[in-house]
C-alpha cells in the first residue's frame, strides 16, 4: 500500500515506458509541422491527395449495402478471409507463394511488431537492430524488456561482417530489419547481404523480423527479393507488411506472415489486445482490392514520389551547409542527410522553424551512439514548388546561423 504526502492511500504508480524523453524531439518536430505556413519535411506521411478516396468510399458503400450484418459484427482474430486471400495473392504475385492461413491481419504493421515483441521476447533477451532504425520498433522491444544492441550500418544498410561478431557476443533472439527504403535512412539492403543474413540466421539460430512497409514504393525497378524468400531461412523470417503506404494509413491495416507456432502465439496475444482488427475496414479493403487495380494506383504514387524526391535532391546542395552529405533513395519516403562536423540538427531545428521549415533530427532513431549531425527529410507530402520554397527557407536559416569552426 502506498501513501501520498497527506497520508492518503494512493494507487500504485504506473510503470514508466521506454523512450519518452528521446522521442519528444520527434513529437516537437511534428508539432511544428502543424503550424500555419510551415513547410514540413518532418512527417512520415503518404501524400493525402493521392489517396483513392472515391474508390475506398465505393468499397465501404458496397460492403455496407451487401453485408452490413457481417461487417458490423464481431469477427475472428485471424482476419477477414477475403482480405487474407487478397493479401496472399499479392505476395504470391511478388514471388512468395503464401497461403491465407499463414497470414494474420493486424491493426497496422505497428501492431504486428508489438505482437512479435510480446510473444518472442522475455526481459533481458537481446534484439539486434540497424543503427539508426525505426523508433517505434525500438519502443516495442524496450517495452518487452529486451536489451537492444545496435549493429553498424553503411549507405547500403546493416554491415553483415560486423553482425557476425555481435551475434557471437550477444546471442540475440531476434534481428529487426527494414530492408527496403528504410525508415529513417532510405537505404535498401543489397541482395548479397540479404543472402548472408539468411545464412547467418539459419546457422546461428535467431529470428529475423523483416519489416517492409515501403517495398512497393520503388521508383525504378522492383525492390530486391524479401529475405523470407530465401529457403535457407524461410522458417525463421517473420515478414511484416502494411497497407498504410500503399492505400491509406488511417485504415490501420497491416499483416504478419509467420510460421504456424509464431502466428498462433500472435493470434492469442491479439485476442487479448483487441479481439480483432476492424471488420468493416478489412471487408472494405478486401472489396477495394477485388475491384480496383492497386498496381495502377501505385504506379501513379511512385511516379509522383519520384518527382518530389528528385526536386528535394536537386535543391539540397544549396539548402544545406557545404560539406553536408545525403543518400539518393531508390524508393520510399525519406532522404537521410548529414551536416558537416560541429553541427547539431536538434539545436538547429528552432532556427529553421523560425524560417518556416521543419525536419526531424536523426538522433532519436539511434539505439546507441546517436549522430547529432543527421536529419530525416520526407519528400512525399509537398509538390515540387513547395519543396523548393522549403529548401530556400532552410538555406536562409543555415546562412543566418554562425557556422561552427570545426576541423574534421
Ligand atoms: C519501418 C516501419 N514499420 C512499421 C511502421 C508502421 O506502419 P503501420 O502504419 O502499418 O502501422 C512504420 C510507419 O511509418 C514504419 O516506418
Give the structure's gist in a few sentences.
The chain is of the alpha/beta class. Helices cover 43% and strands 14% of the residues. The chain is built from twelve helices and 17 strands.
Features of this protein?
PyrdxlP-dep_Trfase, aminotransferase, Aspartate Aminotransferase, domain 2, Aspartate Aminotransferase, domain 1, single chain, alpha/beta, PLP-dependent aminotransferase family protein, 12 helices, four-stranded antiparallel sheet, 2 domains, 408 residues, Aminotransferase_I/II_large, seven-stranded mixed sheet, binds pyridoxal-5'-phosphate, globular, transferase
Largest sheet: 7 strands, mixed
Task: List the total number of helices.
Answer: 12
Write the CATH architecture name of the largest domain.
3-Layer(aba) Sandwich
Number of structurally distinct domains? 2
Please write the string of helix (H) and strand (E) elements: EEHEHHEHEHEEEHEHEEEHHHEEHEEEH
Question: Helicity, in percent?
Answer: 40-55%
CATH superfamily of the largest domain: Type I PLP-dependent aspartate aminotransferase-like (Major domain)
InterPro entries: Aminotransferase_I/II_large (IPR004839), Class-I_PLP-dep_aminotransf (IPR050859), PyrdxlP-dep_Trfase (IPR015424), PyrdxlP-dep_Trfase_major (IPR015421), PyrdxlP-dep_Trfase_small (IPR015422)
Cofactor: pyridoxal 5'-phosphate
GO biological process, one term: alpha-amino acid metabolic process
Domain Aminotransferase class I/classII large: 66-393
